[in-house]
Amino acid sequence: MKHVVVTGANRGIGLELALQYLTRGDRVTATARDASAESLATLSRAHAGRLTVRSLDVKDPRSIEAFASAIGDDVVDILINNAAIAGNRGALESLAMDEALEVYATNAVGPVLVTRALRKNLRKSAAPRVAHITSGMGSIGENTSGGWYAYRMSKAALNMASKCLALEFEREGILSAVINPGWVKTDMGGEAAPTDVQESASGIITTIDAMTMPRSGAFLDYRGDREIGW
Question: Could you tell me which of 37, 40, 57, 59 has the C-alpha nearest to residue 48?
Fold first, then answer.
């Protein structure tokens, strides 16, 4: 049984990841800004004893500190930095400084600070892994449509952060990679998305299980069939 921490687990991909890890018999700590979310309460009732729900706002250093304190010395085998926001989806004229900084803090800086806070817990694992849920929209090489300025920039920054973490953690045996979940039918992805959340989450879990040191720092696709160009 592994201990898996999933941030932003109250809906969408995060909620499905928590469900699938619990279903296969693992222990999960699921986080959300609102720990009283009914989706997590329902999941907790169905998996009593193996799901812990904790409050965490990844853009708030004090919240991260309190979360790490609550985890204590517990081992963390897998950390999935999933919490993210989209921000304004419009063109250049709609970009606002305050909103862009909130997106950047949530999607790029927050995951790094959460990883740092749980580094001691990851060290206790026999096979520690950190997966950051990025987006194909964070790829510079594959950007053919533009727009989504804050979101794209934040995910590109997350990709760089994961590479830095992979290099720093190499001696400790902690793997770090970013995983593109695909275009998924969630509140963020919309109904037009071609990928069901169950398929995406299942692929992400398989990809995390298959992570190796030579691929630490890579930009992986949830289907596990390729590395995405930066």
Answer: 40
